[in-house]
Fold this protein.
Amino acid sequence: MESMNQKTSQPNQPSQIITWGDATQTDRRKKLLELFRQWPIPDSEFFLNLGMFLAPQTLGRVLFMDHLYRQILPIQGIVVEFGCRWGQNLSLLTSLRGIYEPFNRLRKVVGFDTFEGFPQISGQDGALSQGMYSTTPGYARFMAQVLELQEQESPLAHIKKHEIVQGDASVTIREYLERNPQTIIALAYFDLDIYQPTRDCLSSIRDHLTQGSVVGFDELNEQVCPGETVALKEVLGLSRFSIRRFGPSARTSYIVVDGPLG
Ligand SMILES: C[S@@+](CC[C@H](N)C(=O)[O-])C[C@H]1O[C@@H](n2cnc3c(N)ncnc32)[C@H](O)[C@@H]1O
């Protein structure tokens, strides 16, 4: 989840999201978006210059993903994201694999999402509501095309190393692990925002983590998404691992499995 003090629903946004920005940020972003749409850059230089429009928060996210990825380089296993929405993290993780370990054909990147937003809300989820954070119809297919091409920017492009799993992650993670009993998880990133699927997915992956696995969280200690912390507390406990922060990224945190999971 990006940033919150107001719920916003704009014409080109399929569902409500929560942002912390003030009115000046909204105006500034609107102007930047207009400038982006008018950008006179030639197509041949477009992708080389995308950083031109990266806000500090987005750059912080890129750096955070890099920080997590570098820690799993010596660890066997795949990368999973629970709650991938528009797919930015999956795309970043795919590129990071291309940079750091272009020949690691086993470092699959797997994303789980309903693509229809929160399927249900429980009492632990504060003011969040069902259906928030949906995407547009057919978005999983669009994302698959982008990831396919992103993967081809790096070596071993003929081996598919990503998967998008659509549906309720509480169910689909169990099915995925049944289909793939060989799975070791080196990096799991949790951005489901809500209690029940976070709890279910943490419980499901627990036996697939190893010493050195990294488990990242988008909303720990976040008052608007209390369910994520409650789920971690119930499944792994809050005191067994150090819950670490990475400076440039305000809300996100992670643990490194470095002891028994109990
Ligand atoms: C805040 S968004 C994720 C944002 C994304 N990680 C990013 O960085 O842009 C939360 C996502 O969790 C998904 N989600 C929540 N509960 C889910 C569930 N039970 N199964 C699958 N996806 C779920 C929503 O559909 C939504 O896309």
